[in-house]
Design a protein that fits this description.
Blueprint (H helix, E strand, L loop, with lengths): L15 E8 L5 E8 L9 H9 L4 E4 L21 H14 L3
Length: 100
């Protein structure tokens, strides 16, 4: 799902950028973003994404449960997960959804 480049990712203007959301196994919507170097097959750390892309690496990232643009386990509860396994499960699920 391609989207326009958000202002905080403007340093990636020469890279291929995409973002979107996916549902974890518990039905919560989590945000992700990805950046790839031009000609490749494919917000806070965009300076790292740019460096990696300029050196030929693709970058895929997502906001973990309760962080950034992803949903929280409970409304208003940020940066918290009652089970560490949730973070492991979400990361494994996201990895399966990403293009390789």
């Amino acid at each position: 799902m391609a989207s326009s480049l958000p202002a905080q990712a403007s340093c990636l203007q020469d890279q291929r950028y995409t973002d979107g959301h996916f549902l974890n196994a518990r039905g919560q919507k989590l945000f992700y973003c990805a950046a790839f170097p031009p000609e490749s097959h494919s917000l806070r750390f965009t300076h790292v994404y740019r460096h990696l892309c300029l050196n030929g690496y693709g970058v895929i990232a997502y906001d973990m449960l309760g962080h950034g643009q992803s949903e929280s386990e409970k409304p208003g509860l940020r940066a918290h997960g009652s089970e560490f396994q949730y973070f492991v499960d979400d990361t494994n699920q996201f990895e399966l959804l990403t293009p390789h």
